[in-house]
Amino acid sequence: MALNLAFLNRSYPSLETFKVDQEKINAFSDAIGDNNDYVKQGYASPTFLISIQMGAMEAALFDPELGLDYSKVVHGEQSFEYKKPVKAGDELSFISTIEDIKSKVGNDFITIRSDVKDAAGNEVATLKATLIARGTDN
Amino acid sequence: MSVVIKYSDVEVGFELPKIVHNYQRQDLVKYANASGDHNKIHLDESFAKSVGLPDIIAHGMLTMGVASRVVTNWVKDITAVKSFSVKFSAPVVVPNDGKGTDVEFGAKIEEKMADNLVKIAVEARCNGTKVLGRSLIIVQLS
Question: Would you say residue A13 lies in a domain?
Fold first, then answer.
C-alpha cells in the first residue's frame, strides 16, 4: 500500500512542552542498562529523546489518510545530532516534519525529522527516524 | 563534567571494551514503559507471529540505547557525544524460554577528525548476525 505523498513536508509542532525530570531519566537509563554517573547528575542517556519523538508523531502516523499500516511497521534507521545534553528540569518543545516518503520493493518508507528546542529557544537536538511498513509479501 | 580521554592518546583502530547484553521478555516491557513505544510486535507473541515475525522482537531503539553504552561507558561524559546514527539490519528475536537472547556490542575508532572529534563505528551481533548496519557515534575528546 503506497503512502499518501500529500503528507510530505508536513510539520507537526508539539502541542505542549515535555518536562524532563529525574524519574523519566532514571526509568529510561534503567531500561537500557546505563548506569553512568551522568545519569545520577541529572543528564539523560543519549537516546532518551526517542521517548518524545514517537509520541509527537502519533497524530501523523495514525492518520488514516497517510495509509501507514502500523501493524507492519519496523524501525529502519535512527539518528541524533546533539547541540546540548538533555537534563532534568528541561522543558522541551519540538517540531516534527515528514521529510521523506517512498516505496521500495513493496515496502513503504517514511522519514520524520524532529527539531528539539529548550524553553529559552536554544537548539537541543535533531532526530531523524525512518520507519518501514513491510509489504504483505515479506 | 569534563572529558578525561585525550584526543592525542587515541589511535584509529582502537577497540572500545565490548558489552554483552541479555534481552528477556520483561526487559522489553520495561523498555516499552520507559520509552512509550508499546507496539505489540515487542510485547505480544501471538500478535508478532500474526504479522509474519518469527516471535516477539526487541525494540530497535533498545538496541540503539545499549549500543550507546559502549561509547558512554568509555568516554564517561555525556557532553562529549555529538551525534549517533544507526541502521537496523536484522531483528533481535526474544523467545519466551527464560534464557533470553544475548547481543554482543563492540566499537572501534574509525577516524580522527578536526576539532578533537573522533568517529566511532559501532557493531552489534546476535548469534553471529549483525543486527545493526553502519552505525556511527561522533564524540569530542579533550
Answer: yes
